[in-house]
Amino acid sequence: MFECGTCGKEFRAGFQARENHCFSIGHDPPEFECDTCDEYFDDNWDRSEHMRYLGHATYSKHECSICIERFESAEETEEHEVEDHHYCHDCDRTFNNRNNIKQHLNSRTHRGTEMTCPFCRQQFATATGVTHHVERGSCPKAKNITRDALYKVVRSKDPNGRFSKNLIGGTGSTSYEATDNAWNGRAFECYFCHRQFKQLHGLNQHLASHVHQQNLYHCPGRGCSREFTALASIINHWESETCGFMRFEKVQQNFGNIITPGRRLQF
Q: Where's the C2H2-type domain (predicted)?
């Protein structure tokens, strides 16, 4: 016979009747009730001993590390800890938000080096790592694949412009180089964004990056209007699952179709 832990009312009809009662008036079941039968106890130790001795401990080994919720499997428990508590059980570490823990779980720490550069075979933790490696000209076997060349490959496989922009009359990336005239009396200042640098070399590194180039890509996610100057940037956006367009695992699976010549892209 199940009993309400708040008012003590007993329910001969069983568990569901008690649940309906608690839900309707805001009462709670007994705090230390067995997960299988209607027995309840003064503390968690007695409950655990009862469940272990009678084989009622269906969920006892899958208890959340943060709260007292229990689940049928370790996978469900881990998902709850990540989504509700932003907690990594393996590292015993809590993160500020969902995006931070997702990045942590998708990092080299947990995934190793599963992604391989199709040109030099160097391994990386994510598709973003491989794309950044190629796009910035760091691949020794693909020195000729620049940001613009990679865009042309992607565009040829995405003729309808689902995520690559149709740049009619586009001339490619523009080169910028600052001189000593960029000194404003305190630092070397970027003419475009007014960011300041201690050294001229630092400012020119900034100008040589993609930050002030034309946007080449746009996210096709529903309700997402973000645009990106580099392929690595939009792939990183997808991997973060910020807009929900594609799951991290799906990005890794489709990566080979995106960066190498071949058939049209399909997501």
A: 86-115, 188-215
- Within 8 A by CB and 6+ apart from 43, the residues are 32
Q: pTM of this prediction?
A: 0.57
> Distances in Å between the alpha carbon of 244 and those of 9, 95, 255?
46, 20, 17
Residue 10 dihedral angles phi and psi, to the nearest 5°:
-100, 145
How far apart (Å, rounded) are the C-alpha atoms in residues 239 and 98?
A: 13
* Residues listed for the chain: 267
Which domains, and CATH codes, for the chain? 1-58 (3.30.160), 112-174+213-259 (no CATH)
Q: Which two tokens stand for residue 62?
A: 């899958």
Which residues on neighbouring strands pair with residue 94, listed in sequence order?
87
3-state class of 104 per DSSP?
helix
pLDDT in tens, the chain (267 residues): 888 988 888 888 787 788 888 877 888 888 888 878 888 888 878 887 888 788 776 544 577 887 767 777 778 888 888 888 888 887 788 888 888 887 787 766 666 567 888 889 998 888 888 998 888 888 898 888 888 888 988 888 888 899 999 886 666 788 889 999 999 999 999 999 999 999 999 999 888 888 888 899 999 998 898 999 999 999 989 988 888 888 888 888 888 777 665 554 444
Contact predicate 177/207, CB 8 Å: yes
Determine how many CB atoms are found less than 10 A away from the CB of residue 123.
14
